[in-house]
Amino acid sequence: MTPGKATWIGTSAILMWALLALLTIGSAPVPPLQLNAICFGIGGVIGLIWTARSGFGVLRGIGWKVYAFGTVGLFGYHFLYFTAFRLSPTAETGLIAYLWPLFIVLLSGLLPGERLGPMHIAGALIAFAGAALILLARQDGGAHGSVWGMALAFGCAITWAAYSVLSRRLGNVPTESVTVFCIATALLAGAAHLAMEETVWPDTNWGWISILALGIGPVGAAFFTWDIGMKRGDIQFLGVASYAAPLLSTLALVGAGIAQASPAIMIAALLITSGAALAARASATKH
Prior knowledge:
It is a single chain. This protein is mainly α. 77% of the residues lie in helices and 0% in strands. The protein has helices spanning 3-17, 20-26, 32-52, 57-60, 64-87, 91-97, 100-108, 118-137, 147-169, 177-196, 205-232, 235-241, 244-255, 263-286. Helix 1 runs parallel beside helix 12 and helix 13 (244-255) runs antiparallel to helix 14 (263-286). The protein is globular and about 45 Å long.
């Protein structure tokens, strides 16, 4: 697989994550850990079907440390993310949590064979400004922030960036391994749900459709395509392009009539597009 093709496959994860907010809203009133258990379970089933094509022997050849790494990455990020928003349900918390694309760009410079240029950094910062504009413009209903919540949000940003960048070091590990990551995450989320939450099921058909769509896409297939992009694609471009997710997410909410269009969206679109273009140009000149 060429780096270009892998980059486009990785970009599909960003497009799927753009529907995360819309489908999560649609899945209410299911609590977050229960939702994670269901969605990662669906993702794991999809992975099993995909893995069956080449045989499950490929999973037996992978060491337990790799499985532990992937499970900690997926479960750790989502546990920290949802806990952060329970303690601090504010736009500022979302902004801190969304530092992970910037961290991916910066940490990628430590990888063998990768070179981080000034335009990569500039593109990441410009795109971050666009994402910040989107997130800070959202109404949070007067919710108050918590220092612990924001600290956990920072931890979840570091967790996902580290998971993504270190996946590059596991380039020889087949993407089928994500199947086990998803199943293990579903089991851990299920256990945490039983210990911390009350079980609530969707009360509408749209709720069930939203959960199924989440498990198939943003909390399912997206992790497989992201793994391919991180291992074989342009990691710096993907890091900057990830800032398109909050913009596309907001546009999806506007299209569904849940959010209102505003001038901030147009400005954010310009900033994010400009930042991604800078990163793409820097990536083109480094090869």
